[in-house]
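Reviewers asked in the last cycle whether our approach scales beyond single polypeptides. To address this, we selected a multi-component target totalling 741 residues and predicted its structure end to end. The input consisted of the following lines:
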Amino acid sequence: MSRPHLRDVATAILDLDAGPLPAAVTDEATRSLLNIIGVAMGASRGEAVEVVVRAGLRHGGRGVAPVPGRSEPLDSTWLATGTGLAGHLDDFDDTHLATVIHPGAATFAAVLPTAVRTAPSGERLLRAFALGIEAQLRVGVAMSPTHYDEGWHITGTVGPIGAAVAAALLRGVGPDVLASAIGLAATRTIGHREGFGSTAKTFHPGKAAANGLVALAFAEDGVRAPQELLAGTGGYYGALSAHSEPASVVTELGERWEILANTYKPYPCGIVSHPALDAACDLAARVSPDRIEKVEVHSHPLVTELTGNPRPTTGLQARFSTIHGVTAGLIDGTLGLAQYTDERVLSPDVQALRERVRLVVDETCERDAVRVDVLLRDGSTVSSTVEHARGSAARPLTDAELDDKVTRLVEPVLPGRSPRLIGTVRDIAAAGDPTGLLAAMHPEGVA
Amino acid sequence: MNVPPLTSELAAFVAEARPDASARYAAQARLGRALRAARTGSRAPITDAALRVTAALGGPEEHAVLGRDERRPLPHAALVNAVSMLAGAPPEASGAEAEHVLVSAALAAAEHAGASGEQLLDALAVGSEIGMRIVAALPDGHAARGWDVPATTARFAVTGAVARLLATAPTATVVALGLAATEAAGLRAALGSDVGLLQRAHAASDGVEGVLLATGGFNGPAAPIEGRRGFAAVMAPGMDVAGVLVDLGTTWRSADDTSAVGMSEDDAVLDALVHASDVGPVIGRMGSSWADGT
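The resulting structure, written as structure tokens, was:
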């Protein structure tokens, strides 16, 4: 089966869905769910979310539920768009490092409106979420690294498929409908890397989720996709990647789990910056900013390629500036949303110090490693070396660290809510329906 | 080699272009062909499916679905009319796919804006010009790679026309064109099926939505089409970016259309539309009785 048909893929997913998830997968799916809900709530008041909410209220249909953290119910596709966008807005979500996919946002954004309508058990919801993530990660693996290297924001090109799969499983569809939903979703990919540092990028997973839902709706209405749409001539893989291995999508399904390699960001910015940010926070405890003459960040080539902006002027641009992150980390000793506001990016102390920071490409440096050298005004040098960044596969966030991250994100939006939210998500597999989860995400009386 | 600022030039063109008589004539011909297609396609099973799917989503019933008595919110009206026109296009109308998508979105936006028939024709001319110039600049490799050209390019034409009709500021039009670029999609493997039709029709609703989000406050990259990781580089390496801009605004390539204007069955509707001070009431009368010819 070197070029599996749509029905082969759909059948394999449904076979996997027929049994319980391994315990480790359940645990990781739970962590992924908690992370993305926390991140989406934390970003729920962002300007781009406001834009989507206003458009959804003006042009959308009957409300299904609000974006997590908000109170205005939106219809399914506007809700998916807003939720997926919020999940990625602060670049604080999750990352599958082998593909650089951020799978949680589009998947959760499709699960949320579908779960409101289908009222699944917590276990059913979590399984659909996990398999939506797994499906898109496997599609991504099948065309990595070529696809991303060609300039695609892979989160938006595999997201519609993951969204369609997750929603389809919640709807309980059969193989023909699932196959066509995947096929329809594959024709509505979204995402060029040119949009990095702008709302366009954050829109990708939101729109991907909406596209997945619409794909499923047409498939449920009877539209059928050609079987060779993914792997055949003129199909998805050929268009999106000069090299791909379509068979790997169904190879060892149920034995090899890509979701187990999902990681959660400790910093709200592009992940290639993270090792340098660990080092900056470490150095802040030892070096006062006014003693710094020069800073050199010796890092993997992708750091310069993806996050090389030396002078960002907005918080969004700063998420793709390792120099900004290192600068703010050296001054503030911590890096959270407060270090990525427009105001902080334009503050005089940050602007002054970042002129002294430069990136140095080190071809031998691993992607999750860095060495930062700080030359002091007295001529001495202080260094910090990171072998594996916090939040990387080798050094994943602990449950306690993840809970702390979610708490910091949720509390400013819904004060006092984080313990209930964390407890509800951690116990989701035992929940009889999603009522408690929905209530925990929204202001009192909204869900 | 310097890459010209294609996207910002196109955005300025959207705001400032003055289509000449031949461009308007061609726009009217396209409008007529699309209306004729909608007359037939409004009864197609895939149009029924699009109506059911959009009905389930709901929304304000503000905009006409040609040949039907249902109404839909702005983006969904664009989608359903595009489905209808594509379903009703005669087999010999190969090449008309993108213009049908453009017309469907422009009609919905014109109805929304209370535009005149003249403004509608100008918007269609502007959209056609952008779409046809981008198509002409594509390298053979774009389609050879698997992309369905009408699906990947129609969003640009739709965005131009809708931005024009909604009097969008050029800065916002750049953002909207950026969304059109990053949403460019559609596969040749889908052609011949309803999926192939839908992937083109979605360009209409996506283009409308992109303008709404851009005017609502989205931001985007400055060079989403011509930039280092933009549409041309990612989906059409070797695209003649500079060629898109040659004589833009002075030479109307989209006017190279000498086919007859009109719908034959009832030229009066087309005539009323293009001479209307507000196209909304005219479009509103194009329901099921119009499609029935009664």
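The two ends of chain B are 60 Å apart (CA to CA). We regard this as preliminary and will revisit it once experimental data from Aim 1 are available.
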